[in-house]
Amino acid sequence: MVRLQRRLARKRYLNSKRVYEYERISLHIPKKFHETIKPYLNQDFDLRVTIEKDPLVVTLAPLKTFRHAENTPLKSAPERLQTLEF
């Protein structure tokens, strides 16, 4: 069983004279699924929520990012260099 939880977040500003309030809704994942979702931690997801007759369907799909740029190969590898003669 999963339960949606709602809480009101408050942020103070202007030396605590004013308060900005906003609503936060969260979905807690049961303990039995923690090992299944651990490989997906710290990733961005595309979220889709649909209502099909009675059930609420929440779909998370990993976003395609440019993380492959972090592991770029050497751009001037010796086997790829060409010597030019004039």
Description:
The strands form two sheets. The chain has a two-stranded antiparallel ribbon with strand order 1-2. It has a two-stranded antiparallel sheet with strand order 3-4. The chain is built from one helix and four strands, in the order ββαββ. It has one helix spanning 34-37, and strands at 4-13, 18-27, 45-51, 56-62. It has one domain (4-65).
Mean pLDDT across every amino acid position? 82
User: SSE string, helix = H, strand = E?
Assistant: EEHEE
Largest sheet: 2 strands, antiparallel
Characterize the overall form: extended
**Could you say how many structural domains there are in total?**
1
Percent strand equals 35-45%
Tell me the strand order in the biggest sheet. 1-2
Distance linking N and C termini: 74 Å
Radius of gyration, in angstroms, nearest whole number: 24 Å
Quick recap of the structure?
The chain has 86 residues and is mostly beta strands. The protein has one domain.
Labels describing this entry:
1 helix, two-stranded antiparallel ribbon, extended, mainly beta
Question: How are the SSEs placed, and which strands pair?
Answer:
Elements lengths: L3 E10 L4 E10 L6 H4 L7 E7 L4 E7 L24
Antiparallel strand pairs: 1-2, 3-4
